[in-house]
Design a protein that fits this description.
By secondary structure, the chain is α+β, with helices and mostly antiparallel strands. Helix content is 45%, strand content 17%. A hairpin with a 4-residue loop joins strand 5 and strand 6.
Length: 195
């Protein structure tokens, strides 16, 4: 099961967590309800997930397939059956999950070092995978896990904000419009060097 989802935006951090009364479907219902409400005036929303294809994409895709009509869902999958992009088209909003690892193929800590932002607070601990830690929200391990997860999201957000600024200012490329490092390279080549 997926224990926690964290959304970091310009002025907020919000997390959704499974506990005794909140199962996976309810977690995703709350997440999508939050996104639709928060971005109701937007037409498109891109959410980057580091290593979408290796883990999170399975949960996201399964939920979307069970909740929405198949015509509302599109995805790009690689030769190893790993997700690159998962999109959901709602009435007034398209929500796209993209794998930031495809654009920046390095660990989150390395990405944070490259863009000079604060990375992980500590190393991943094996007991973070134990759902029993969610039973006691007052325990130290629970608080540590929430802080660890939140910092993962915040550090990815901050690194991608710096990347977005760099690529917009240097090459006029919006990283939300690409899906991989080769597509980023090719877009820069077409815009800046192709005659």
């Amino acid at each position: 099961q997926l224990p926690v989802l964290i959304i970091s935006g310009i002025s907020y951090n919000k997390y959704f967590i499974i506990n005794k009364s909140l199962e996976v479907n309810k977690l995703f219902n709350e997440l999508l309800g939050f996104l639709v409400e928060k971005y109701k005036t937007s037409k498109k929303l891109t959410i980057f997930v580091h290593n979408l294809g290796g883990f999170d994409g399975i949960f996201i895709y399964k939920y979307l397939c069970n909740k929405y009509d198949s015509n509302q869902i599109t995805c790009i999958i690689d030769d190893n059956n790993k997700f690159i992009v998962i999109s959901l088209k709602l009435d007034n909003l398209e929500i796209t999950f993209k794998d930031s690892y495809r654009i920046f193929p390095c660990s989150l800590n390395e990405l944070c070092k490259i863009f000079d932002v604060e990375g992980k607070l500590n190393n991943y601990k094996s007991n973070y995978s134990d759902l029993n830690l969610l039973k006691d929200p007052n325990s130290e391990i629970y608080k540590e896990f929430i802080n660890y997860s939140l910092q993962d999201s915040v550090s990815l957000h901050n690194a991608l904000l710096k990347a977005q600024k760099l690529y917009l200012e240097s090459y006029n490329v919006d990283i939300t419009t690409i899906v991989s490092l080769p597509s980023l390279d090719f877009k820069i080549f077409r815009l800046k060097f192709l005659k």
